[in-house]
Amino acid sequence: MYVPGYYEFCSRVKMIVGHDALERIPGALSDLHAKKPLIVTDKGVCQAGLIDIVTDAIKNSITIGAIADDVPQDSDLQIVNRLATLYRENGCDSLIAVGGGSVMDTAKAINIVVSENAEDLMKFSGAGALTKALKPLVAIPTTSGTGSEVTLVAVVKDHERELKMAFVSYFLLPDAAILDSRMTLTLPPFITASTGMDAMSHAVEAYTCLAKNPLSDSCALAAINLISENLLTVMRNPGDKDGRLAMATGATLAGMAFSNSMVGMVHTLGHAAGSVCGAPHGSCMAILLSFGLEYNMHKNGHLTAELLLPLGGSQEYIKTPKHLRAERVVDYVRKMNHDLHDASGGRHARFFKEIVDRDGKQMIPRVQLADIARAALSDGSIFYNPEELDYDDFLMVLEHAWEGIPLDRSRIKKG
Amino acid sequence: MGDYREVQAGSKPLKRSYIAVMLWFVGRAIQAAARVDKAVREEFEQLPEGFSFALGVEPHGPYMIVGKNQKGRVKYLGWKIEDKHIDLKLKIKNIEAAVLLFTFQESTTVASARDRLIVDGEVPHACAAVRILDIVEVYLLPKLIARLAVKRYPIWSFRRKYIGRTRIYFRSLLGY
Amino acid sequence: MFLPDNYEFLCPVKTNSGNRALEHLPFELEALSARKPLIVTDKTVTGQGVIRKMINAFKDSGVTIGIFDSMPDVPDMQLVTELSNIYRNGEHDAIVALGCGSIVDVAKVVNIAASYSVKILRDLAGDNLIAHPLSPFVVVPTLAGTGYETSKFAFIENLTFSSYFLMPDLVVVDARMVRSESVETTVATAMVALAHAAEAYTGPAKNPLADSYAYAAIQYVKDNLMNVLKKPRDTDGRLALANAASMAGCAFSNMQPGLLHILGEAINAMFHIASGICMGILLPYGLEYTIQKNGYHTHDVLLPLSGFDEYAGTADNLKAEKAVNIMYEMQQDLYTVTGGKIPRTLEEAKIPKYMVNDIAEKVFKNGAKEFGIDDYRMVLEHAWEGKPMSWD
Lengths: 415, 176, 392
Hints:
The complex is a heterotrimer of chains A (about 425), B (about 180) and C (about 400).
Chain A: E1 6-9, E2 14-18, H1 25-31, E3 37-40, H2 43-47, H3 50-58, E4 66-68, H4 77-89, E5 94-99, H5 101-116, E6 126-127, E7 137-141, E8 153-158, E9 163-168, E10 176-180, H6 189-208, H7 214-236, H8 241-261, H9 265-277, H10 281-306, H11 308-319, H12 325-343, H13 369-376, H14 391-403
Parallel strand pairs in A: 2-10, 3-4, 3-5, 5-7, 6-9, 7-10
Antiparallel strand pairs in A: 8-9
Chain B: E1 4-8, H1 13-36, H2 38-46, E2 52-57, E3 63-68, E4 74-76, E5 88-92, H3 95-102, H4 108-113, E6 117-120, H5 123-140, H6 143-149, H7 158-174
Parallel strand pairs in B: 2-5
Antiparallel strand pairs in B: 2-3, 3-4, 5-6
Chain C: E1 6-9, E2 14-18, H1 25-31, E3 37-40, H2 43-47, H3 50-57, E4 64-68, H4 77-89, E5 94-98, H5 102-115, E6 126-127, E7 137-140, E8 153-156, E9 159-162, E10 170-173, H6 183-202, H7 208-230, H8 235-252, H9 259-271, H10 275-293, H11 295-298, H12 302-306, H13 308-312, H14 316-337, H15 355-365, H16 373-385
Parallel strand pairs in C: 2-10, 3-4, 3-5, 5-7, 6-9, 7-10
Antiparallel strand pairs in C: 8-9
Helix pairs in contact in C: 4-5, 6-7, 6-8, 6-10, 7-8, 7-14, 9-10, 9-15, 10-14, 10-16, 15-16
């Protein structure tokens, strides 16, 4: 196993995992000396009945301060401030976040405001601005997933000033994360697919990019194994409790991996596509993943090759000659997208031109690829990508991802 | 008690001086490159009015600061960070990490992958700053060393590379 | 992949490892709001010039450090009282343990005393009796270590403290600080780490989160121990072994003690043979025992031991057996490379055969009822003779 010249790894979230993990929340809160949580969530989670399951599990032992269910799809500064006020008004002393990425981000941001008595959240953006522990935060993911329950980042949009604020600090890590199969049992197949591939892309990029280290590698390998074994299973059989718990675990392990090893060009382009066109994050990751592996192959193909074991299994690994394994991995990822496309009744997109919104309208028109390429230049994850990308490189990859044709390797400028 | 003592470790004057000189040179080279090189000029044009950024070592420096003045010209603004508003600070966590960077044992990419740097400011600006630094490194360093410092050594025309390099060295030393 | 139904996992330890890791310490302490650390170490460490490197790491940081370097070989509660007074009088706000073994134990207990009062210290011995976070605590190992350094345990006099709050906030693994040790010590410490990691990976409380630490630990020991023995100046190898110990500590802090731990510690107590040497002897037998008890748990322990190609090329029903064979081969290699210094069996370790029963009885009587007395006896007998257990 590779010994890095220097690395850092930290994942200090207490994990509580099981089919009835929610019932252990009161114990976790009491260990943190917390008695009155604010539950932060969104309407989708509420409507799916998940908040009822959570409150049923805890209400006999805990006084719930309030339930705030109006977090929008993109975490928003106004909401953060309003919910911080709600927290104070109800005399809360802790937070429980139940939801996906933006609920988690919102809860982390609320935590900054109420712990630091912040008037202006902006002051705490960037790295190093937080200097002491925040209020207790328990994270309950309802997708598998963004991994936000174990990451040290929160992103909040200030829609008024059209700014995106990123907060980075170990103090943002939740004190505890609850993985309970009940939270994803009713997750619709389309979202299962896109969030599952989001997790897959986290693990794959953490393993193949520049900040890899032995602990993130262990997490990433286990994550890839769990996701590849369980994603299609839970697509076809959504009520499979063991499968759902496996996916949740895989997503958390992927989160632990990338929180410490960062990600690369797949996220650079995915973030850009999301911010320019509003395309769903998971869908973009799923599509871009194989292209990222192709683009970087001359630099990290030997690492990509190793992923054939957790992705394809022992048989596939041993029968594929060493110099062909990386290509097989690319094929596997593409095949996964095709299978997910079928299993989701055509809703999971295999390439950019297939991504549509609820009304069937194309979300990424070809003419916007230039804007996405330009936006990609501003994303920090590119630092960790093994190969350099400039505007032309970004555009080239985007064009291939749009059509869904394998990358023309002769067009890659090798450093 | 004989077994217990308090120690104030002191400083590393030689290393600090070396880093200070390197930073001074890099700052002046950025100022020069903004006049000589189109790509650097365009990067600065995309940055907000009056934008300034600093590169240096925590906790007590040394630092170098560059920024755009009211007329939009890029200037090296010295080493004192206390009395200025600076939009972006690229902070190296300690003097040893700075030595690794400025003796090219660790490139900017490797240094950031190894958590040696902190970005205090907006990430899109940091991306631009790193691109500017990469270009300046290609100008300042011979290919053998620059290849270690940047991720992908660019293919430039003779004119850009050699004449540009001469002009930048000249301007950096003379300060215009 | 094996997934348990219900478990918990916590590892609060941050790892900084590699070239110039030590120089990050002032920054990390600042992030923990600590500006005046107390460094606790002993004269063996200071004699190695390592304390000079520690002081240099604080140069240019503006931080004042306190250094206490007179840790005795066998520390006691009086020392803890003395150190907590030094801590308070010096207005320190963080503890840095520079060393391994009892240095770290003392530092952990002093940390408890600094947050609570020395008077009630004995009342806090036991499981999970510490109710809130302690002062910032950093471990800088000067040996590869056993893993107890990053674990939730602290031992002093006859007391055992156990709490997640005792795990260090940060472990700094810097090759310049990790010194070469004798062959016996290198093997002993690596084997404690390997045994604990292997038990975490194959035991009844196995879970994917602990596995992520255990997997890396097993692989690092397997890949590096022989190289370090053959080439003591292999700094990357020593760095890897130190990493492995730290990771093993994180993994086994989330587990109940396994057979290797229980028997290894018992033999150490009775015969004063290093527990790592004991665990190294018992490893293949203990692993065989576990496989026969829970086969489905154990076949993937082959992966960190053998690497991807060999793992993929081995049929599923033969994976566990292969893992055990690798352990036997490792024992043999250790014996050969060290010129016979590392015993392969309890007989070679000069333990009389008739004592095997005594060990089993003592262990069982002392309350380690996870396993039956016959199980202990069976593993010990096979480990005495060097006779593998049958595979039917």
